[in-house]
Amino acid sequence: MTPLLQVFDMATSLKFYCDVLGFQIVTTDSNTTAPNHNWVWLRLNGTDMMLNTAYEYDKRPLSPDPRRVASHRDTALYFGAPDVDAVYAHLRAKGIDLKEPKVAPYGMKQLYLRDPDGFELCFQWEANR
Which residues have C-beta within 8 Å of that of residue 42, sequence separation ≥ 6? Predict the structure, then answer.
């Protein structure tokens, strides 16, 4: 499965997903140039995801619609991360302010953060492994 997220500003999202998280661009739409793509396919350690702009660049409002962004809180992506503490250290080194990983009551060590559009991301692994 490859999820597709609608993003407000592709350049901002690519900076976050590629420069901070380490995703690589697999391919993009053919009718735009970096970083102003309308669609991008990304990959990190065998995990694929796609980003698509919520608005064409010539039709994008000056700021995100708060009602649209509010609905992003209903979406969470969980990534398998055998070393959650290393992910935490990496993100802190990239300047991301986030809480330390915690072990959930069901035994998963989890690190939560939000992307620039408000989508929740969780890096997790079974705590007793």
Answer: 17, 18, 23, 24, 25, 26, 48, 49, 50, 51
pTM above 0.85, yes or no: yes
For 20, which DSSP code? I
Question: Using one digit for the tens of pLDDT, what is the confidence trace for 89-109?
Answer: 999 999 999 999 999 999 999
Residue 42: strand pairing partners: 25, 49
Residue bearing tokens 């915690």: 102
Convert 62-87 to b/e letters by CB count within 10 Å (16 or more is b): eebeeeeeeebeeeeeebebeebeeb
